[in-house]
Amino acid sequence: MEHDIWFDEPAQRWYKVTHPGECGRHPEVEINLDKQTQQWKKEVLLRLATPKEYLERLRLQNVLFGDDLRLEGLSVRAGKFCVVTSQPVVAGRTPSLEEIHAFMTACGFSECADFMFYDGKRRLAAFDAQPKNFRRTRGGQVLPIDLILAPAEELHEALGGTPAG
After folding, report:
1. In a 3-state reduction of DSSP, which class is residue 143?
2. Where are the domains of the chain?
3. How far apart are CA 144 and CA 40, in angstroms?
4. Separation of alpha carbons 84 and 104, rounded Å
5. How far is CA 144 from CA 35, 73, 80, 122, 132, in A?
6. pLDDT tens per residue, range 52-68
7. For the residues of 48-98, what is the DSSP string, one character each?
């Protein structure tokens, strides 16, 4: 888990604080030699995110999905900075993989690997799209609550886009 979390009952918000000196994960392309085919292949891996990448991920979730993620501040633990954020509680249940797939497809994303989606038009990637990171409201709406979203210009070809498009 990339955060310590707690719930504020009166505010009906979840608060998250990143681990000291870390800001979650961010995708990057790594080029490796496939031992079986002896061909170079591009793989998308998740590395530690910079503070800017982490905050951009939160901004994208607000813009794309109408969330209300807030930067609450910065703190210091063990001599290292931590980012403190909050988001509203989303009542409901954990959705099925099929419900997540339908939601992401309706939002313009295509599945490109397990728990990974890509929007080639907007060149955005969504990682860690596991059921635990979504909620299905009592009204039937599926909402992401902790996706790893990233601009994917450098990931475009590795995620299935063509070099020109």
Report:
1. strand
2. 3-151
3. 34
4. 27
5. 37, 23, 29, 18, 9
6. 999 999 999 999 999 99
7. EPPHHHHHHHHHHHHHHH----EEEEEEEETTEEEEEEEEE---SBPPPHH
